[in-house]
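re: that complex we talked abt at group meeting.

here r the seqs, copy pasted straight from the sheet so there may be weird spacing, ignore it
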Amino acid sequence: MTDIDAVWERTCKVFPILKKTLSETSVGNEDIEHVIRELSALGLCESVYESAFIEFDFILRQQIVPRFWKHFESVPDPDTGFYNFQLAVHELYSDFSRAQEVLRRLTLFRQVCRLKNQEKVAKSEEATFDELFRSVLLSQLAANFNDIVYAFYKVSFRIFANSYDNNDQDEFAEDMIELNCNGCGKETERCRCQELVCAFNTTNKHLYKMHLLDKLAGYTLTNLIQERITAHVEETCKGVFDASHIKNLQKWLDTIVINWLTRIFNRGSSKISEGDGYTHNVIENFRIKLSYFLYETYAKLIIDQFFNIIIDFPDSQLAIDDLKVCLEKIDLRKHLIKTLKQSLEARLLHPGVNTMDILTGYVAAIKAIRHLDPSGVLLETTTEPIKEYLRKRSDTVRCVITGLTEEGPTDLAEELAKSETLKENVDVKGKDEMLNWEVWNPDPIDASPVPRPKRTSRSADIISMVVDIYGSKELFVNEYRNLLADRLLVQLDFNPEKEIRNLELLKLRFGDSLLHSCEVMLKDISDSKRINSHIQSDLNYSNGKAFPISSLILSSQFWPAFNKETLELPDEIQDEFKKYTTSYEAYKGNRTLVWRPVTGRVVLEIELAGRTLEMTVNPTQAAIIHYFQERNEWALEELSGLLKIPPSILRKRISFWQTQGLIKERDTDIYTLIDEMEQSQVDPSQSQEICEEDESESAMASASDQREEELQVFWSYIVGMLTNLDSMPIERIHQMLKMFASHGSGVEFTQEELKNFLQRKVREYKLIYNGGVYHLPK
Amino acid sequence: MKVKIKSWMGVATWRWIANDENCGICRMSFENCCPECSLPGDDCPLVWGACSHCFHMHCIVKWLNSQPNSQQCPMCRQNWKFNIQ
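got the structure back, here u go
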């Protein structure tokens, strides 16, 4: 017994683990061999070997691991967290290294005894222990452990990045007087960066030796770095679109982040030794993973700000170039489309935005997105909502035309000017496509699958894109014609060279035939000048005239319909026009003039109370004041009868003279000239508030009036149909008209429009609507 | 008060003095031009026949050239003669 006890004592001395302790005992190899000999004599080798591992398991479970985790039970605060972690790792490591010594002895033990445990031969003692160690450690993982690791690495990264920055800009750093160190947050004099770095390196070395670096810190490390990357990208790139960041970001990643990681994984040194394939691989993996993350973060940042990029487009080109690079590496197409659509909708497509601004945004979006994706698929998908929205706005066409013909924020005029070279380019492009067929790519899968009639429409230029909002050129041309007519007749600020140039440019784009009438309109204006000067030189006319008349002589068929305002001029004035007409008839045989008295411009000189006023007014106003010359007081009714103007409109016209302080309304509908006595008392500024905007009124019929006029064409068809078929519902009428009548004239109309038209006819007693069908009154 | 008109710029449309509105051949209004032309008025004048019918000059000339034997007014079938005024 004593013998066995003695042997056990000696065994425990060699393997203190058997007594549930890791305390070190210094024993020489000969002691170990001695114990082994004794044990093998007793045939106990195997049991001792086995029980050593059982004890390991026990100690790990009961002592080492709980002690390690105990460090993390308290709520971590950033300052102590760092040391806490360092201390814990340090303790763990000392236990670990003591265990290593025991393992070494066990290895020796096994080799000497030649134990026949076959399954363990495959694994060394270290491997078996590692397995045990890790599984026990991780099975008791503390809940807040990741936070602590995170805090630990965060401090170190800050120090590292800071020291790197300081190296970069040494001379600046010396100039700067900083109270606190950027790295450790302590006062500069008490900076502990160096100390912290040392502690950090040792801790990492320990973790690495225990093969725990990846397991314990890998996840948190990745998280931390990703967070840092996001913060860095945001810090450097947000809101800056006129510079390319991608190279700088890549450089930042390669130097600071990767260097730091190398230090962690390579035990404190930043150079990986040649033969260390493992570390090299780990770092390389990180590099790939992180650089993708960097690109993704950067691309998302750009995408989120894409609306602003669109708005400053030509300046933000570099940001778009960056995004292009990113999109090649990472597929964010769906995200891009979704975000872009949303931001466009939120920023542009609501009632608070002017149509002109939407158009400006649309044009900028076309330019920017086309720069990003020349194939046009992206553009098509993202701008569809804008088009849809613009279609619903009634003033879109007018804004486009204004944009095309006047200098404005939309650059449309500029684009139009560019189109001179358009035709040649189209040919060149076509050739290019044939030559470069090898670089052709199919459309991305999100492209609209509908085959388009013209291949060119996707790569169409900006003007076509804008005009395409409505899908019809006619509408635009009509609106252009109306605006042109207005400019020529009412605003009279006619700049022939500019108008002709504009017209030529538009013709290049829309074709001659659609713009033919505009051409005639411009020609009418220049012809009128010639005719005028001819008539002025006609002695028969110029000798008898009371005042000089000039005229714009229009080809009625080519101008848009005029509005139906009427005016009958006083006889004396009419006589003058008759003289002019006579002279015209003499000049152009077989032709005569039909005057449109409402439109025009009159320069008057009014003598009043010793002063003279010179004014430019419209003909109606001139006629009114002319009548007041004869009599000082007029009843509205009487004047309305003479001028053939409805009283309501006449009242509006008279108000012009009221604002001028010449006429007052003495009693309801009785207007008097303010006589010379009163004249001086009236302060003209008082009545200035009722100033009316006469000049802006259009001489042309409004669009809806013109529309009605067009539908009027169908009235005879409708009467014919109803005579033959007695009664019809509106769907039927619409269908029939579409089938038979609308072919030739090219007029298209919706059922809604037809309904309005028919309802008007019902009101005029020309139709009867009964039980859902229309029929003619008997 | 005395009002003196210093100048008056008026707007008028021109019209042919004819007893019809449309050209009997092309059915276009006289104030419009014939299908061959693009500018109305001086560039596409009207002509009158002795029968008092009138057409776009280009229209009636084309018509007459297409009639090999007898040259008749397309409206009244009388022999066509230009009415030189």
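couple things i noticed - The mean pLDDT of chain B is 87. The interface with chain A takes residues 1-18, 29, 31-32, 38-42, 46, 85 of chain B (CB under 8 Å).
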